[in-house]
Design goal:
This protein is mainly beta. The chain is built from 1 helix and 17 strands. The protein has 2 domains: 89 residues, Immunoglobulin-like (Sandwich); 93 residues, Immunoglobulin-like. The strands form 5 sheets. A 4-stranded mixed β-sheet has the order 2-9-8-5, with no helix packed on it. A 4-stranded mixed β-sheet has the order 14-11-10-17, with no helix packed on it. The protein has a 4-stranded antiparallel β-sheet with strand order 13-12-15-16, with no helix packed on it. The longest helix is centred in the first third of the chain and has 13 residues.
């Protein structure tokens, strides 16, 4: 049987049709796969945050460089948050990569520090902060504590403040029992300096009353008590 041969033009049309329908015997070159976007990785802990001990009078603040304890594998800049479990004992504040503890009262608090990257991933560490009673920053002495009889009367409280370390913004408050008599501001006192105070006011006084003074300065405090003398 004789074979029928297609004209050259018709054969070209058929070959083009087969290629369009994917029936060509010549495979098409595959396109190169696209690279997947790199995944954001969470911040990492580079070193453990150690527990902290503060003294109420001398080392009342402690600042931690958070960048020394956290890192980001992608090189992203980290932001920090911190919280104290007991703000009565210690409070915490954050400025950039600095986390500062502030002692408030004797006791213990747990502090959480969280590092976050721009994508919202984070890492957290927890440490304990213990506030102890340290050596006093000043010595208080009451040299005079007098009242004009009993009842609501005039009271005079005098004495000295001897600074054991440099003190800033010093003030002395005088009391009879729980009644506040008055306050005197002494300003800054150099280490080793002794400053006098004299507080006068009125208070309700009984035969068993005591007068006492409380000294306060930036980062320090102390207290002295003396029985009252009647004029």
């Amino acid at each position: 049987m004789a074979r029928r041969q297609l004209p050259v033009a018709a054969a070209g049309v058929l070959a083009a049709a087969l290629a369009c329908n994917g029936d060509s015997t010549t495979p098409a070159s595959p396109s190169a796969p696209l690279d997947p976007p790199s995944a954001n990785r969470a911040p990492a802990i580079s070193a453990a945050l150690p527990d902290r001990t503060l003294t109420l009078n001398r080392d009342e603040q402690d600042t931690i460089d958070a960048d020394s304890y956290f890192s980001d594998p992608d090189g992203d800049a980290l932001t920090y948050e911190a919280a104290s479990s007991n703000t009565h004992v210690a409070t915490v504040r954050v400025s950039g990569g600095s986390v500062t503890l502030v002692a408030r009262n004797l006791g213990r608090a747990d502090v959480e520090v969280t590092a976050s990257d721009p994508g919202g991933l984070n890492a957290m560490q927890r440490f304990s902060a213990t506030v102890e009673r340290g050596e006093p920053a000043a010595e208080l002495e009451i040299t005079k504590c007098e009242a004009d009889g009993t009842g609501p009367v005039d009271v005079s409280i005098e004495g000295t403040v001897h600074a054991l370390t440099r003190l800033s913004s010093v003030s002395v408050i005088g009391y009879v029992d729980t009644h506040r008599v008055g306050e005197q501001t002494l300003g800054d006192i150099a280490a080793g300096e002794t400053r006098q105070f004299a507080i006068r006011g009125s208070a309700s006084v009984s035969s068993t009353s005591q007068c006492h003074v409380e000294f306060s300065a930036t980062g320090n405090n102390a207290r002295a008590t003396e029985f009252i003398a009647f004029r």
